[in-house]
Amino acid sequence: MLEYLIRRLTGTIPVLLAVAAFVFLFVHMLPGDPARLVAGPDATPQDIAAVRADMGLDRPLVMQFLRYLSDTARLQLGRSIKTHQTVAELIGERFMPTLLLTVFAMAWSVVVGVGIGVLSGVKRGRWQDQVAMVLAISGISFPGFWLGLLLIDLFSVRLGWLPTGGYGGWQNFVLPAFTLGTAVAAVMARFTRSAFVEVTAEDYVRTARAKGVPERGVIWKHTLRNALIPVITLTGLQFGFLLGGAIVVETVFAWPGLGRLLVDSVAFRDYPVIQAEILLFSCEFVLINLIVDLLYAVVNPEIRLR
Amino acid sequence: MRHVVPRMLLAVALVFGAAGTAHAAKDLVVGFDANLTGLDPSDLNDNLSQSATRLMFEGLYMLDEHMKLQPQLAESFDASEDAKEFTFHLRKGVTFHDGTPFNAAAVKFSFDRAGNPENHLKRQSLYVMIDHTDVVDEYTVRMVLKYPFGAFVNNIAHPGALIVSPKSVQDFGKEVMRHPSGTGPYQFVSWSADTLKMKKSEHYWKPGVPKLDTITYRSVPENGARIAMLQAGEAQFIFPVPPEMIKALQNSPTITIFNEPSILVRYVALNTTRKPFSDPRVRQALNYAVDKQAFAKVVFSGYSDPMDSPLPPLLGYYQKQGSYPYDPAKAKALLAEAGYPNGFESTITGGAATLAQRGMQFVQQQLAVVGVTLKVEPLEAGVLTAKQFNVTGPQDATIVMNYGGWSSSTGDADWGMRPMLYSKSFPPVLFNLAWYSNAATDSAIEQGLATVDASKRATAYSEAQAQVWHDAPWIFLGVDHTLAAYSKKLHGAFMRPDQQFTLTADADLD
Q1: Phi/psi of residue A303, each to 5°?
Q2: DSSP string, B407-451
Q3: Residues facing B186 on adjacent strands
Q4: Inter-chain Cβ pairs, chain A and chain B, closer than 8 A
Q5: Is B218 within 8 Å of A97 when comparing Cβ atoms?
Q6: Do A256 and B193 lie within an 8 Å CB cutoff?
Q7: Relative orientation angle of helices A61-73 and A271-299, to the nearest 10 degrees
Q8: Is B97 helix (H, G, I), strand (E, B) or coil?
Q9: Contact: B128, A46; criterion CB under 8 Å
Q10: Range scoring the smallest mean pLDDT among B90-99, B112-121, B492-501
Q11: Are A255 and A167 in contact (CB under 8 A)?
Q12: Distance CA B495, CA B240 (A)
């Protein structure tokens, strides 16, 4: 097990290096000069040269790349071109808001989504299934920004129960976590249902029934356990995506998260911030994949980690 | 144990009782679409961060809510006849938030720092004309310029020339943008992610003010959410409010709409070095072909005024030039005269924001009436600036019609014309996207800078405006209104004509 973990983690180093190199080349290929964008339209050539020199953008690209690689290897992420803050600080301020929002949104949406999916799978074709799937389709189709604004209008402006946005106490989490989780819950419900239905048709489920296992046992032990494998995969993927910052929800709820930071950074071609964020997201995905693989083994002891 | 509980209750009651009898804290929350970029005044170029620094820092001079020059840390100034020497007499008894005194040495330090190219600060161009700064005595400072610069006092009234505490720079170095220390009415508390907090300065030099206890800046990018914040009472001032959303706020009994003309002009810069725009008749024809009233109505829901000069009315030395009335027949006649009886095809380029796209589509529709077929090319900001500035001269410009806007950040006519209409301001140097070059305009712009004499400057800018209006290097569209909204409880909050959020010294909440 430990050996497996070490092997998996060391295996990610070349992946991350490749990502780092790729991201560097990609952001520098984007048209647009960060010095010009940061200095503004009424900046004179001196002003722009000042920004360029300040951020080392006047050095040859190869030198910038080597510098970037060696800095990144030592976890030196540099400073934002736009605000001069250290990238570590910029990301640090926004990491917890994004992580907590993701955790809350995923927590309710996975429970509700899987619950609805199982119910639909068990009662497939009946009215419960139809109601659940109408809900799920609505959840997927409802645009997040629209749902968010409707919720703000109802709960913040009309009723005055919850704040309109911003990061703070638990009240601040309710609306964004609900909005963010809605689409996830809907996807989870549909996915769980189809995985469930698929497993129900398997031979071993039929065998279980034939040898007289009670229906409850068939559903929970034989069907759900196996149906959960793809559901866990999906949960991991969704978690990874949301950790990358939910741009729409963060924007609607003025949430100081990583998604808005990335959008702002791209707008200003803030190379160090873009690079660090993408690298962070890659690390998160690698980690989540590892956790997902470990969870497979927990859910289904027949899966061995090698 | 039994005694502890009542005692605790008593303590709690006392605490709450005490809080209840003290005056309610006056906490102002303002919501803006953008986020701050920093708090080092000489290293900023966005209105939002500048407005925040202007609450914490002060300059020798300032522009008030009407863009009028007012003394702030200086009480008065003398200028030499040739506009090359400026002597400022400073206010006495002022201290920075870090406790150090404000004096001539602090002014010299601040100016030397911001103007030194080695410090790589974004606003150093405000200082390029300064040769050196002398401390005459404790409260007198003299700036000697390399060449005459008539707009100098306006230049130093720019937020890029706010005076910073020398100690704060020595203590924090580059990190001073996270530890601002000025002489302003409010002092820094914290800045994290998208929230800036300031509190009242207890030692402000002007007696009786400030009246607000705290000010919080929040970045709320979504228009609807920002409006909801104001409606829910979480914010007392929001900017911007999109023109089409004013209606939603108009009938609220607790909210006031702020609707005033700005100094932001909207225009289409026509590449005057390229056919067909090299012919002034074509450029004039396009001006006759666009209905400016309809532009205001369609694009800005009426919150815009037609341009009647290259300068907006609220900028000093503005002079009304007349109008290019909507006259498609005349436009067609002029086009025919210039050799384009059937019009021509071209491309209009601009930003990708909703308002910019709507503006370009409007121009497209108007010009179609006179036979000019436009392709609308909305571009993301980075791509757009690359296209505008990655050029060495007019020969490799790829933009022929640029839909854009300009607001003079110094509040002076010089910066309202020189960057866009002076032949030495071709990209990549500055923003002359029309590649407009006229010796008469150039000389008028130079004369405007060569003196501090208001009547001589007025003559110069009057000539420049008339020449540009006649040459029509732009399709003159409109002057934006600034649209914001605030709680009726709030007094003394404005958007200045340059769209900078401003609080009067006695700003207060009921």
Answers
A1: -80, 125
A2: --TTSSHHHHHHHHHSGGG-TTTS--TT----HHHHHHHHHHHS-
A3: B200
A4: 141
A5: no
A6: yes
A7: 40
A8: coil
A9: yes
A10: B112-121
A11: yes
A12: 10
Question: Running along chain A, 306 residues long, what does each successive block of 10 average in pLDDT?
Answer: 81 85 87 81 78 82 86 84 86 92 93 90 86 88 88 91 90 93 90 86 82 80 81 88 85 91 88 90 88 82 67
Scanning the structure block, which residue is given the tokens 């009215």?
A127
Q: From the list A84, A163, A251, which residue is nearest B221 (CB)?
A: A251
Rounded Cα gap, residues B211 and B492, in angstroms:
11
Give A37-96 pLDDT, tens digit per residue: 877 777 777 778 888 887 788 888 888 888 888 888 888 888 888 888 889 989 999 999
Confidence at residue B434, expressed as pLDDT on a 0 to 100 scale: 95
Integer Cα distance of B133 and A187 in angstroms: 67
Instruction: Give yes or no for a contact between B166 and B110, defined as CB atoms under 8 angstroms apart.
Output: yes
Minimal CA separation from B425 to chain A, in Å: 9
Q: Does the beta-carbon distance from B122 to A93 stay under 8 Å?
A: no
CA atoms of A34 and B360, how far apart (whole Å): 26
Pairing of strands B373-379, B345-351: parallel
Q: What residue of B is the nearest CA neighbor of A29? A: B383
Q: Angle B413-421/B439-449 helices, nearest 10 degrees?
A: 150
A145 to chain B: closest CA residue = B222
Tokens of B421: 């209409």
Stretch B339-350: mean pLDDT = 95
Radius of gyration of chain A, Cα coordinates, nearest whole angstrom: 24
Burial category of B202 from C-beta neighbours within 10 Å (exposed 0-12, middle 13-18, buried 19 and up): exposed
Work out the pLDDT band at B286, boundaries 50, 70, 90. Answer: very high
Q: Are B151 and B417 in contact (CB under 8 A)?
A: no
pTM: 0.86
Contacts with B70 (C-beta within 8 Å, 6 or more apart), sequence order: B61, B62, B63, B64
Take residue A145 and report the two structure tokens written for it.
């920004």
Tracing tokens 């002597």 back to the chain, one arrives at: B87
Task: Provide CB contacts within 8 A for A83, sequence distance 6+.
Answer: A90, B36, B37, B38, B177
Q: Do A51 and B120 touch (CB under 8 A)?
A: yes
**Beta-strand relationship, B474-487 and B237-239:** antiparallel
* Residue B157, CA distances (Å) to A20, B45, B60, B210 in order: 45, 14, 7, 21
> What is the token pair recorded at B409?
């950040």
Contact B62/B157 with Cβ under 8 angstroms? Answer: yes
Q: How far is CA B369 from the centre of its chain?
A: 35
What pLDDT score does A304 carry?
67
pLDDT for A305 equals 63
Q: For B120-168, write each residue's pLDDT tens digit.
A: 787 777 888 999 999 999 999 999 999 988 889 988 999 889 999 999 9
- Quote the DSSP letter at residue B101: B
Tens of pLDDT along B437-472?
999 999 999 999 888 888 999 999 999 999 999 999
SS3 content of chain A, % helix, strand, coil (to 5): 75, 0, 20
Enter the tokens of residue A162: 């919850």
Instruction: Determine the residue of chain A that is closest to B42 in CA distance.
Output: A47
Q: Find where tokens 């990549």 sit.
A: B428
Residues 6+ apart with CB under 8 A from A100: A173
Tokens of B477: 């569209």
The DSSP bridge partners found for residue B143 are: B86, B133
Contacts of A216 (CB under 8 A, 6+ apart): none
Task: Provide the pLDDT for residue B18.
Answer: 43
Q: Give the gyration radius of chain B's Cα atoms.
A: 25
The H or E element that residue B200 is part of is: strand B195-200
Pick the closest to residue B345 from B297, B288, B274 (CA basis).
B274
State how far the Cα of B32 lies from the Cα of B35, in Å rounded to an integer.
8
Picking from A36, A51, A201, A229, the residue whose alpha carbon sits closest to that of residue B381 is A36
Is the Cβ pair B218, A163 closer than 8 Å?
Answer: no
